[in-house]
Specification:
heterodimer, A: 673 residues, mainly beta, eight-stranded mixed sheet, five-stranded antiparallel sheet, 5 helices, globular, B: 473 residues, five-stranded mixed sheet, four-stranded antiparallel sheet, 31 strands, 39% strand
């Protein structure tokens, strides 16, 4: 009996042992905020455990690098709460990316950086570097001979207006660094009143990109700097060829279309400017070919800088001039030869992005296609947004917008006769939204009376004498209203002052006068205030001049289908112009008994369906909490996409060439946990 | 047998009628699984600290509210809490175990206390603290000087501040069972006028209410409103009642503006196994029926939300910044809020900041003319994080705080350096102490450090080796 038991036990041990050769031990990841591809390895943060784990991408299937005890995954203890990893980058002849001796683990607000060796035989923290101040950004450039690593660290000191500083450490190889303190850093540049919120190194040794956040304004430049001299080589937001480079802020925000060029009467436009807003994450595209040799700097725009309006939301690329080439950095042109529109997912706050050269992906309905440079971005809504990065373009899977529909609402109930006819929406400019055309409608949000009415744009340009100033909590002689006096040129005033206000503070809004020639106010649930219109008039809301800002285009429709009449046509086919208008309609007069607040409604659709990487719901059912990926990288050899999910404390591996129309998703491996 | 039953009933009645006779009262010389914490400046130079001991494991019969006079706390060798700016850098935190609490500085409350909100008048500072245990009471007590008085306690049981407290589940045994607010937790007092009679109290609760009770159907949660000066719970969700029906989905904390109450949302099941989370709901204070659902999940998905704060209120201000703690993934969400004077405010998430494990409560340190610092307790990581909203970065991760920092209180004051600084207090749920964190200069928040611990961890963790060995407690 005893022997039989022993034999059974031995068999069980063998069986378990056999299973272990094919199963992957859990690494007990916790806090998977960041990923870093370093040659054959994928480093992942386990922030809550203050360690890095490493996936070996040369293994099939991919597996964790094992510890000296091969039953356990290797853990690399690093600084407290590392939520970011910087790579020691260098580039090959054609711009292919390699990682040198180290990756650097660090955490926001921490004062220390762990230099972790990437050599397969080492894979450990070589030295911890104490910067002595809170870190805000880190980047590193490996020397071309691989002997040293230039580690750029940005810190922020809060005295006075605040001071951002970039320092450079030059670190020797792993053996030397392990045995001795590195030389002290040199200060590359300081930025009074600004914090550095992103850093990137360029293939040109000693050159870096510094993204700044001005405080307290939250504006900020993106600078191209020679770290050897500290000299600024250019701005990626305000290139110097405009007479007033800062006019780029107005142009890229859509406040104006053009600005005089330096030294002449010609006008500069969007094509002469760079990023439309400060950036918060950078990526260098150094892939070169004979037709496109310039290095591009990709930036994730900082939504903080403008309250997440469109011009500070999304991804843009700016191209640097070649060495010795005249000119300034400027926004990258798309296939149409137009300044690229800002690339945006259909929803969600962007959380990260990366680019991958020679990447294949299965596009639903089109099969597997290889692209010179694909972009992947993760979002707060959980979607993974895929775009073509060379030239920059979204993959719009929609065939186009649906025809707009209209309806009406009377406050007293029932329908309103008349209303919009001959409706047109511009593909590439129209949004998924509800547009209201309100009789005697509100032109502004409610605000407090501060001694005058002082309308701001765009209300000021729409206001007319006779419009109503409607108070929420004042009697104003029993009417609750005053009238607008004056004109845009002479300035606006009011027919009196508010009186009898509750709590002593007057709250008011402007309303279009029913007696005006344009008593209807047009506004979109996404676009916002669009204008006003009267019976028998044609309402036109521009998509913007295609040679200028292009501000209202949120994507350029497929280049083979649409292009401006005078744009270059790379394909030689018939091209149609981009639409000039986002919305157009004619308004048929309402009935005589129309009341203030009665409205016509137009529902428009964008026809915008960007390519996302759907994550298989069956997999998510088995492995819950995959809400928001915060990092994405693609393996260069396996067409696999790796996504970090701190909400699930794991990493998902997705085969983006293996799309199943049955499940409507790509193939996913068991999560790396 | 009958005699025995009668005797047992008599004992039970006697116990019920005489709360002073609690056989196992909570310790009054320390904090026991502290949760809620709040600080006020009145009455003492170094300030007053309100701390709720939650009695989480119910080792004792009740929880405790303690009013600590910070000028009086001392270490074993007689050291006091140094003024802000005076604590040396690099020194170990002072262990101020002697809380100097006399009998008039503690009151018994129900177990499982939640947040604390303060309401200050010229005569007293009123502290509100709800408890999740039996009866779900809303307890309030007044600090007059350094004395803590329970306004509704009886002469026979002046230390009992739970028995006569208004219950938030009084309708539990009715046919519909609603409105009621089981597991009350979050509390805020708001007043943007000079008249204390206008101060309003807002309460949240962690568990949804079902109707009929215990049938696990028709789940809903409520925001509870009342007067802070005359707290009275009117058990109705119709006009004039205290309960505002928010629909399905739990609540956690509340922040308030002139017109709107912002309610953060906890994860709840709908009874059919479906997870329901609404990270944020807005209640129109002028019209309870106008509950706005901004659906910020479409911008950033999270399992649930915890602490919430808005930038300092200015009367009739139309725009604010909102800060919301998200759990799983552990994140600080920063949003621009506009249209607060209108009928439908807009909320745009503009930043998401990863946080250390299990963030819970947050408080703002306002800086004149600048965006605030945001202080967040990260319970699982045992750190307190300071986020600078001007640079959108974490500027300090304060370690050495203690075990499971939970509640947060802050006070801004001139430091001995002659500049504006801040003192942060966190209730360490896991070790029964309060950590004191100083920022000597608000321009240098990265220099934040733990300068002292108040109380002894041996109250909550008597099994700790340093307690059992008789070493330094």
């Amino acid at each position: 009996m005893k022997r039989a038991l022993l034999a059974a036990l031995a068999l069980a041990v063998v069986a378990v042992g056999c299973n272990q050769t094919t199963s992957r031990p859990a690494a007990r990841l916790s806090g998977t905020y960041s990923l870093a591809l370093a040659n054959d390895f994928l480093f992942v943060t386990s922030a809550d455990r203050s360690e890095l784990r490493v996936l070996d991408l040369t293994k099939t299937p991919t597996d964790f690098v094992r510890a000296p005890n091969p039953l356990e995954p290797l853990a690399i203890p690093v600084v407290d709460y590392p939520d970011a990893i910087a790579r020691d980058l260098k580039w090959g002849e054609a711009g292919a990316e390699f990682v040198g001796t180290y990756v650097y683990a660090w955490g926001q607000g921490g004062h220390e950086i762990s230099a972790v060796a990437t050599d397969r035989g080492l894979l450990k923290e070589i030295r911890r570097i104490n910067v002595g101040l809170p870190l805000t950004a880190v980047a590193a450039r490996a020397s071309d001979d691989g002997q040293t690593s230039s580690l750029y660290v940005a810190t922020y000191e809060g005295q006075g207006a605040g001071l951002g500083t970039v320092r450079r450490y030059v670190l020797p190889g792993a053996d030397a660094l392990a045995s001795a303190e590195p030389p002290p850093p040199t200060v590359v540049a300081t930025f009074a009143g600004s914090a550095v919120n992103a850093l990137a190194v360029l293939p040109q040794d000693g050159q870096i990109i510094v993204s700044l956040r001005e405080t307290p304004t939250t504006l900020g430049d993106v600078l191209w700097i020679d770290a050897n001299t500290g000299a600024t080589l250019g701005s990626l937001r305000f290139p110097a060829n405009l007479a007033n480079p800062l006019d780029c802020a107005a142009i890229t925000s859509g406040a104006q279309f053009s600005s005089p060029l330096a030294g002449g009467t010609a006008e500069g436009s969007r094509a002469d400017c760079g990023f439309s807003a400060p950036t918060r994450q950078l990526w260098i595209d150094a892939v070169r070919d004979s037709s496109d040799p310039r290095v591009r700097v990709w930036g994730m725009l900082d939504e903080e800088s403008c309250g997440r309006q469109e011009y500070c939301t999304g991804l843009e690329a700016v191209e640097l001039p070649l060495q010795g080439e005249a000119g300034a950095p400027k926004i990258v042109l798309d296939k149409l030869g137009l300044p690229m529109p800002t690339l945006r997912p259909s929803s969600g706050l962007l959380t990260s992005f990366s680019l991958a050269p020679n990447a294949a992906i299965s596009v639903p309905g089109f099969g597997v296609t290889t692209f010179p440079l694909l972009g992947f971005a993760t979002t707060g809504s959980g979607s993974i947004f895929v775009f073509d990065a060379r030239p920059p373009e979204v993959f719009n899977l929609s065939a186009g917008p649906n025809a707009p529909t209209n309806s009406s609402q009377r406050l007293s109930g029932g329908e309103l006769s008349g209303g919009p006819v001959d409706m047109f929406t511009g593909f590439g400019a129209a949004r998924n939204e509800r547009i209201s055309i309100v009789y005697g409608g509100v032109l502004s949000s409610v605000r407090a009376w501060d001694g005058g009415i002082f309308p701001e744009q765009p209300v000021a340009s729409l206001l007319q004498a006779g419009d109503r100033i409607s108070f929420a909590n004042c009697s104003t002689d029993g009417t609750g209203e005053l009238l607008v006096t004056g004109s845009p040129d002479a300035g606006f005033g009011a027919s009196g002052s508010p009186s009898g206000c509750d709590a002593g503070v007057a709250l008011f809004a402007f309303r279009a006068a029913e007696t005006s020639a344009q008593p209807f106010v047009v506004s979109g649930s996404v676009t916002g205030l669009m204008g006003r219109v009267g019976p028998g008039q044609t309402f036109q809301f521009p998509a913007a001049d295609f040679n200028q800002r292009l501000s209202r285009y949120f994507f350029h429709t497929e280049s083979a289908l649409l292009a401006p009449a005078n744009a270059p046509n790379p394909d030689g086919g018939a091209l149609k112009p981009l639409p000039d208008e986002q919305l157009r309609f004619e308004l048929v007069a309402p009935p005589a008994d129309v009341q203030v607040g009665d409205r016509y409604i137009i529902d428009t659709s964008a026809g915008y369906q960007p390519l996302n990487v759907p994550v298989d719901p069956l997999v998510l059912g088995a492995y819950p909490n995959h809400y928001v990926p915060t990092a994405v990288v693609r393996s260069p050899t396996q067409n696999r996409l790796y996504l970090a999910y701190p909400s699930a404390s794991d990493v998902l591996e997705i085969d983006v060439t293996n799309y199943s129309s049955t499940s409507g998703a790509y193939s996913i491996s068991v999560p790396y946990q | 047998m009958r005699h025995l039953l009668c005797i047992a009933a008599a004992i039970a009645l006697a116990t019920g009628c005489s709360p002073d006779a609690v056989p196992n009262p909570p310790p009054t010389d320390g904090f026991y699984f502290p949760t809620g914490i709040a600080t006020a400046t009145s009455g003492a130079d170094a300030g007053l600290l309100f701390v709720a001991s939650s009695n989480f494991d119910k080792r004792f019969d009740r929880g405790l509210m303690s009013l600590v006079d910070l000028t009086q706390v001392t270490s074993a060798d007689g050291q006091h809490l140094p003024p802000l700016g005076a604590a040396p850098y690099g020194a170990l935190p002072l262990q101020l175990q002697n809380l100097a609490l006399n009998d008039s500085q503690t009151l018994q409350i129900q177990s499982l206390a939640g947040e604390i909100a303060l309401f200050q008048t010229t005569d007293f500072i009123r502290a509100f603290v709800p408890s999740r245990a039996e009866g779900a009471p809303l307890q309030f007590m007044d600090a007059v000087g350094t004395q803590l008085v329970c306004p509704y306690a009886t002469d026979r049981a002046p230390k009992d501040c739970y028995s006569n407290a208004p219950s938030l589940i009084a309708r539990e045994n009715t046919k519909t069972g609603v409105p009621r607010a089981p597991a009350p937790y979050g509390v805020t007092v708001f007043n943007d006028t000079a008249d204390p009679a206008n101060a309003e109290l807002f309460l949240t609760h962690l568990q949804n209410a079902d109707s009929p009770p215990n049938e696990q159907t028709n789940y809903r949660s409520y925001l509870v409103r009342s007067s802070a000066l005359n707290p009275e719970i009117i058990e109705s969700d119709a006009a004039g009642g205290s309960f505002v029906n928010l629909g399905l989905g739990g609540t956690n904390s509340v922040a308030v503006t002139h017109r709107w109450a912002f309610v953060s949302g906890r994860y709840q099941s709908d009874g059919a196994g479906n997870a329901i989370t609404e990270l944020l709901r807005l209640v129109d204070r002028q019209n309870d029926e106008n509950v706005v659902h901004p659906a910020i999940e479409s911008d950033f998905r999270s399992t649930e939300a915890r602490g919430i704060a808005l930038t300092q209120n200015t009367v009739f201000e139309n725009s604010k910044r909102m800060y919301l703690v998200g759990r799983t993934p552990d994140t600080l969400l920063v949003a621009d809020v506009n249209g607060l004077l209108g009928d439908s405010p807009t909320i745009k998430i503009v930043h998401q900041q990863p946080l250390p494990a299990q963030p819970n409560e947050l408080r703002l340190i306002e800086r004149p003319g600048r965006r605030p610092l945001v202080v967040i307790s990260c319970t699982g990581a045992e750190t307190v994080v300071i986020y600078d909203d001007e640079t959108s970065t974490i500027v300090a991760q304060v370690t050495g705080v203690g075990i499971q920092p939970y509640g947060v209180a802050v006070r801004t004051e001139q430091s001995t350096l002659g500049v504006l600084g801040a003192r942060i207090f966190t209730s360490n749920f896991g070790d029964g102490r309060v950590a004191v964190i100083d920022i000597d200069d608000l321009n240098q928040p990265y220099n934040a450090r733990v300068v002292a611990h108040l109380g002894s961890k041996c109250v909550t963790r008597p099994e700790d080796p340093s307690c059992t060995s008789g070493a330094a407690k």
